[in-house]
Amino acid sequence: MLQSAKSAENEANNTLRTTHSTYTISETPEHEYTQCLLRNGERVFCSTAGGVLYFGEPVKTRSYILLPISDSCGGNGCPSRDVRLVVERGSKITVKNVVEDCYWCELTVLHINARTDTATFKIGNKQGYRLAGSFRRGTLSVHRSKITSKIDARTCSDLHETIKACASSETRPCFNPYNSSASGNRMMLSIENDHPSFSRSAFNETCDNICGSGKEITYRQFSSKFCRG
């Protein structure tokens, strides 16, 4: 039976107990500012993405405990993550690499059949593909399906409003709101990740053309070029 730590808030976020193990996320003296996963005080692995590990929601089946671990450099400025799965069976564990450098990815359980030791997971989107995971009696498989959905109307409208600002730009090179801030860059990365048909280079080129001519692009023109896939 899983037992969450119930002491200080920091411990609750960084410690998880199972029947056979106590898992702790902490820094070690030789890995300052880089977090490592410890099991019963012994190191399992350390962050490879820049420093921060955190637990996902653990899953218990008849024979296994599945513990997702996400790894990033921390904060909203580091949306790309590595994801691992610690598989515990009795007193033994294995660590499975799920995905590397994946935008906002994490293992989220969709379905569990404890009796048959099976579970399915949502992982996230990467480079135009939707990733899902399936666990079956000790084996983890990752499946990819191509994303074919179009950019939704609200996002398309936001992009259009942004590119309209290029027409009024008085700076050279032209001011592109999505390239001038961390939040704007994350937005563009998210759109590229979820919609492989979207071309950021074409978006930037259109912005430059509008800036040079001062002529706006209509929503219909913009939607046809960037949002319909």
Q: What are the low-pLDDT stretches, counting only 5+ consecutive residues below 50?
A: 3-10
**Elements, N to C (H/E):** EHEEEEEEEEEEEEEHHHH
- Strand arrangement within the widest β-sheet reads 1-2-3-4-5
- The backbone outline, from C-alpha atoms, is elongated
Average pLDDT works out at 85
Distance between the termini: 48 Å
* Radius of gyration, taken over Cα atoms and rounded to an integer in Å: 22 Å
Q: Hey, roughly how much beta strand do the residues contain? A: 35-45%
Number of helices: 5
Biggest β-sheet strands, sense, barrel:
5 strands, antiparallel
- Helix percentage: 10-25%
Total beta-strand segments:
14
The structure class reads alpha+beta
Provide key terms for this protein.
229 residues; alpha+beta; 5-stranded antiparallel beta sheet; 5 helices; 14 strands; disordered N terminus
Describe this entry's structure for a reader.
- The chain is of the alpha+beta class.
- It contains five helices and 14 strands.
- The strands form three sheets. Strands 1-2-3-4-5 form a five-stranded antiparallel sheet.
- The longest helix has 14 residues, at 200-213.
- Residues 3-10 have low confidence and may be disordered.
Short account of what is shown:
The protein has 229 residues and is an alpha+beta fold.
Furnish the topology, listing elements before pairings.
Elements: E1 3-4, H1 9-14, E2 15-17, E3 22-28, E4 31-39, E5 42-46, E6 52-55, E7 59-60, E8 65-72, E9 80-89, E10 92-103, E11 108-113, E12 118-126, E13 129-136, E14 139-146, H2 153-164, H3 182-194, H4 200-213, H5 219-226
Antiparallel strand pairs: 1-2, 2-3, 3-4, 4-5, 6-8, 7-8, 8-9, 9-10, 11-12, 12-13, 13-14
